[in-house]
Amino acid sequence: MRKVLFLSLAIVAITTNAAAQSWLTAGNTLTGTEKFGSTNNKSLDIVTNNTVRMKINNKGNIGMGITTLGVNDRLSVKITAPVPTATYTMTRGIFAEVTGNATATFNSPTVAIYGKSNNNNDWGYGGYFEGDLYGAYGKGKYGFFGYGTGASFTGDDLAVGVKGLAEGDDIINYGVYGTAPSDASAYNYGVAAYAGGSFFGNYALLAVDELGGPGAAGFFDGDIEYTGSIFDVSDRQFKTNIKDLDNALSRINQLQPKSYDMKADEFGGLTFGRNDEMGFIAQEVQEVFPELVKSCVSPVDPYTMGGQPSKTEPFEFLAVNYVGLIPVLTKGIQEQQAMINEQANVIKTQEAVIADLVARVSKLETKQNSNIEAVIDGNNARLEQNTPNPFEGTTAIGYFIPEYTSSAKLIISDMTGKEIKSIDINTIGDGTIQLTAGALSAGNYTYTLVADGVVVGTKFLSVAK
Q1: Domains located in the chain, CATH noted
Q2: Which residues pair with 424 in a beta bridge?
Q3: What region, left, alpha or beta, does residue 49 occupy, with left being phi > 0 and alpha being psi -120 to 50 degrees?
Q4: Which of 53, 52, 73 shows the shortest CA–CA distance to 61?
Q5: Mean of the pLDDT values across residues 238-257?
Q6: For residue 334, what are the contacts with CB-CB under 8 A and spacing of at least 6?
């Protein structure tokens, strides 16, 4: 292939020289004025085995393996690939190789093929590749290297190192496709992107989905690992029709969190996690938050197993915007906190009312007891303060029951006045009741001594567990 290319270049050079001598197959001594080719408006054909191998038409366009040349194609190369054999065979239309520069550096690189397009109103391409799965393939540190420079900030001026365009009616089209073999022994990157410097507007990777819909700016089949932070664009300048969220808590309560396993074996074209996962079912979320559910289309990986295209056809599925749930959950927490604050205020008011009622009851009992005169010798019943108070295990309550008393009891009540426990007293005179906390919860209680249906007194005790 290289010999043909070198021969064609030599012939092109020779055609510019003028001479009247005959050309010898063994070589010619040239003076610099010779010509080889036609002097009229005819093409020049180079023939081997009675077949045209190369053509130079009357416009100076050169074709190898092709006889019908495009008007704007200066060099055209065409080759028909042979029938595949059992061994690996690569058919190359153009093969270029540079070797021997052991001291190659950034300032003195070796380039096998170099394409450059200047002064084309920002629509020139240094190289344009069109193929099936691979636009360009190479072995080495750089399979394909693109470099763009000279852009300004005026108009639509751009410097693009590599630009990939995928279009057509086929189901699968890739503008740029990169793969790293899984059986490699070192680090391999299908696509590696780097943005250096501190100047604003440096992006290691820029992906745009201008149509929206089921498509997306990026699809990652597998886990995503990252360092740094993820920032969602949320500037006010991009937003309109801004409204506060309402009734978030009631909608959150309709969500149904689940645990589940992914069908990794059934959907071979997608890479799912195989461990137990937690999340939501998209169809269920759609009923509550339809704005957080999107219809997607699975892309097809053309390099799935052993370099063979995947058999999985694209299909639609639903995805949930989990990040979009954050403001809803935040609003739900705020609504719940407002409810808690309101309940705390109600409880505080109720406690004040209960304390006031207890104080009033105590005053009434004291007044009532002071108006009851003892019948026998002034030996009136009495109730003493428990000791210790507060208590954790057991406390002692002292009392005195006159001998004329026919019945007496000690009543334990909570702060709402609800009777918790009643203890009958059968001892006349001075006595002590040992009260055990038992089932009493930590808090404040009252205990009341009643003799012959008359309230002798009421006091407070506290249980501290």
Answers
A1: 2-77 (no CATH), 374-463 (2.60.40.1930)
A2: 409
A3: left
A4: 73
A5: 92
A6: none
Terminus-to-terminus CA distance in the chain, angstroms?
96
* Rounded Cα–Cα distance for residues 296 and 288 (Å): 19
Contact predicate 412/367, CB 8 Å? no
Are 430 and 408 contacting, i.e. CB atoms less than 8 angstroms apart? Answer: no
Report pLDDT for 197.
Answer: 62
User: What's the confidence (pLDDT) of residue 148?
Assistant: 61
Q: What are phi and psi of 285, to 5 degrees?
A: -65, -35
133: DSSP letter: S
- 169 burial level (CB within 10 Å; 0-12, 13-18, 19+): exposed
pLDDT at 150: 57
Q: Residue with structure tokens 């009891």?
A: 409
High-pLDDT (> 70) share of the chain, %: 71
Contact in structure between 459 and 435 (CB atoms under 8 Å): no
What is the reported pLDDT for 133?
Answer: 45
Helices (H), 243-324: 248-252, 282-288
What is the model's pTM?
Answer: 0.51
DSSP states of 181-231 as a string? -TT-SS---SS-----SS-TT--S-----SS-TT--S----S----SS---
- How open is the CA angle 100-105-111, to the nearest 5 degrees? 60
Helices (H), 253-293: 282-288
- What six digits make up the tokens of 379? 């030996």
Would you tell me how many other CB atoms lie within 10 Å of the CB of residue 365? 16
Written as one string, the DSSP assignment of 310-358 is P-PPP-EEEEE-STTHHHHHHHHHHHHHHHHHHHHHHHHHHHHHHHHHH
* Contacts for 452 with CB less than 8 Å, ≥ 6 apart: 405, 406, 407, 408
DSSP 8-state class, residue 68: S
Task: Select from 368, 379, 395 the least CA-distant residue to 460.
Answer: 395
Phi then psi for residue 368, to 5 deg, are -65, -40
* Residues 194-198, mean pLDDT to the nearest whole number: 66
Decide if 43 contacts 55 (C-beta within 8 A).
yes
Structure tokens at 8: 């064609």
Between strands 443-451 and 454-463, the pairing is antiparallel
Q: Give backbone dihedrals phi and psi of 84, rounded to 5 degrees, phi first.
A: -60, 145
pLDDT of 254: 94
Q: What is the DSSP letter of 362?
A: H
What are the tokens at 308? 């063979």
Percentage of the chain modeled with pLDDT above 90: 24
> Which whole number is the average pLDDT over 88-104?
76
